[in-house]
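Margin note from the TA: students keep mixing up input and output lines. Inputs are the sequences; the output is the structure of the whole complex. Example:
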Amino acid sequence: MINLHGITAAFVVCGLTICSSAHAADLLIDRSITKNEVLEAQRAWCAALVDISKAYETGGQSAAKALAEKVIDSAYAYDKGGVLFKPTLTVNPQTVRTTRAGALAYFVGGDPEFPNDKGFALKGWTSCVAEDNAIIILGDTATSLGKVRITNMDGSIATVDKTWQYIKDPDDHLRIVVHHSSLEYSDQ
Amino acid sequence: MINLHGITAAFVVCGLTICSSAHAADLLIDRSITKNEVLEAQRAWCAALVDISKAYETGGQSAAKALAEKVIDSAYAYDKGGVLFKPTLTVNPQTVRTTRAGALAYFVGGDPEFPNDKGFALKGWTSCVAEDNAIIILGDTATSLGKVRITNMDGSIATVDKTWQYIKDPDDHLRIVVHHSSLEYSDQ
Amino acid sequence: MINLHGITAAFVVCGLTICSSAHAADLLIDRSITKNEVLEAQRAWCAALVDISKAYETGGQSAAKALAEKVIDSAYAYDKGGVLFKPTLTVNPQTVRTTRAGALAYFVGGDPEFPNDKGFALKGWTSCVAEDNAIIILGDTATSLGKVRITNMDGSIATVDKTWQYIKDPDDHLRIVVHHSSLEYSDQ
Amino acid sequence: MINLHGITAAFVVCGLTICSSAHAADLLIDRSITKNEVLEAQRAWCAALVDISKAYETGGQSAAKALAEKVIDSAYAYDKGGVLFKPTLTVNPQTVRTTRAGALAYFVGGDPEFPNDKGFALKGWTSCVAEDNAIIILGDTATSLGKVRITNMDGSIATVDKTWQYIKDPDDHLRIVVHHSSLEYSDQ
């Protein structure tokens, strides 16, 4: 007990030598998403799209489907309750795919529950690049909006406007919770 | 000072009567966004679109512009560093409008810096409804993805796919930080 | 394609009957923490403290330790990189327990790495109540500050000032990331 | 309109030269709190404590109070609905100070509503250092737990265990939402 200007308190008074022995707590846990993590997640999505196309060329629909399931489970957060996914080419009344089955059907087709899906990832994509990113990081969630350009085996380049919102899962891996993709508008 | 099984400590031992006098701290601050706040923000955006159309009919471009500025400042977070805004009908190279000027030009036109903008809010909209919402609330940010149907004075209904991400500002008012709007895809 | 006041666009025009078939997206994912979840986590922590005391009475140190390990793994987020834990009765240079081993030693003692720990949970606690809560919810993290009153088998009541900060884990279970507990100050 | 493997779509096909003109959206908004911002906020709090002590020495209670009001408004988030503040030396039933008036009384005293407060910041503090920080950053909120050592004009050093939780306000300035300070426990 010491008396500090009238306040009696159990302040521990210490010399610097003794107190330095207390330096035991230094720790930094940072759950914030960084710009580089967003860019890496975009690259991973693009690489996966091309990989599924290649799997289809070499192994057929079953190989493509097996890979697409892995990609969806790794890149999307369907296991957290669903995803707000509006793919580029879906139509009413199945525009939005909040379930894993709906995402899988969009990427590789073949699901009678989604009869309009022909398999977007099976179209022979050879490269995919995300560009012109606007990014907002709100701590443990981040959203990007920009262009994604995908090149077909015939050399044509298709561009879509794409919004992705991510969360960070317990393994520090980004997972998509919102995905809105749309063809560029043209007034021609 | 009391002795608790060998631990000498400055525990304050008290009877229930005395301790009840300590009930002074009850406080709840909840910054989470609710579903109802998201739906209300959607309604406010829709109402503002119709109001700007009406202002244009009755007061011309200057009245529409004055109202649009108010709407943008109230509904969007441009003052927080920019917004990820991909309007429905913009074209390259000005597809995304990260600045307030770009948003204003889109809604009411008349800005030589954005020569393709004819004023989306000036087209005679008479009603606007957000439907089929998928919503994800990540605490102090929330995102909705769904259909927005807007009715024109000629009775036609246009539908867009729309993603809005919101934050809550210090006055507990939702502000749009991401807005991706796109025409529905049609394979016809 | 329709022409809306000079804007040629692929708007899908639909009657209400047709559009109602698009109602497929309704989904709500809400990761926000509620006040009730905070109160329930407090009750669970208190119940666990009493349970460990009972396990010690009936099964000795090994039973208490086994239960404490379960409690720590369920209630704290040590597996997320560490916890900011300042227990009530720790001393320099081991005041703060950022590791699981440090928390376990505090609750049940018996770890030569933490020679001052006698086992806080082994002291015969028969009830534990959190009161006078001030709570702040920042979406997916929440913090409470208040009094926790714990009653000993000899009938004495000890009160501590306690701050707990929680996150919600992927299973929607609250986990403690910060825990600061201190004896009430007394100028006597 | 182009035909991509059976999908008729309004893809905009472009050569690289034309598409490069679309690079207009690059934007990064990052609201995450950094470790350095936490350390700077700690330094600012410490500097303010010493400054209030100096203001008291040179200008008396009214000067100290005027400065303390500025410090509280800048460093704490009382204007956001209240703060979870458990100061080092408060006693029941006014242990926790959820209101600005309660914080001001603690720092400079002189408020008959808080009769036990003698003015913690008026005690002749000449230096203040935060050490041994454990920090957790959850995006737009961060919490530190560590030692704060404050030196008195008589040369004695007092150490407290201190938890601070911060949010970032719209001006990118950290504001305290939780503050739990306690004397070090001693079993002597």
